[in-house]
Amino acid sequence: MAGQLAISLSFSFSASTAPGVATLSTASLATVVAVAAWPGGTFAAPTACGNHYWAGTAPDITNSAMTRAAREVCFGAFGVMHSGVTRTPLWSAEHLTRAGLSDARQISRVNNFHAESRLPPGERAELRDYVRSGYDRGHMAPSADMPDAQAQSESFSLSNMVPQNSENNRYLWAGIESSVRKLAQDRGELFVISGPLFKGKTITQVGNRVMVPTQLFKVVYDPKRKQAGAYLVANEATGDYSVVSVAELETLAGIDFFPGMPASVKQTAMSLPRPKAAGGGSKRKRDQEVPTYREVQTVLEFLRTIIR
Fold it and tell me: Which residues are annotated as a binding site for Mg(2+)?
């Protein structure tokens, strides 16, 4: 069941308790994670997931409220900064290469959705949170990007998931993911950071625990051409999206995605390919009998006026 949670401003958590930011510690066959803790404030700590980030440098959290219960989790092919408040990633980061994506095409998808055992139980999403919620478990680092079976299995960790509108996830977002893969294949390599935004005073929850994003973003950086930009989409049934500059998205997100990157690169949005929705076409033709969220809201508002 989806519930409602009042939140002041965009992703504005209570800062009355001094937030601590920790990095999880564990090691496995394809996972290397380090442990550290930092006081509240701008998060600019060293990262154990450096091979997934441009220049080996993780994003900085510039909105200090977002550092509360933020924990880094490193996987073989991507790195996550997880929020124990939203129980979603703040971002998932990947270094896409032509060779890695060539390997990924040889891997058949095997669904292995699972809770992230390295996160504290009170901070992580559980499979039961999504049951009958009406939302997909939406990957931030896509399973189709993963270069081997181990990495693909890791991508199904709920620490890499957000509650996502099902039509959005399966059509527009899938098209964006596919377009970014093709761009990486064409250009040789890209650094990609994907994540959610929580905007507004009231945020929906699933399982009364996991916050539902209002928007999703995917940042793309081409290090050879020194070009960057980002897709920005509403988390609803839509074929619409925006391409924005990194600087613009950083203001919305409260995150410095590329510390040390020249302002001129951040302020100019690169030309990103128009996503082709699954099944072909730049936008899926929606069944006209299935109303969008905005259409439903418009009808409800009209009914309220005539019933009064």
Answer: 169
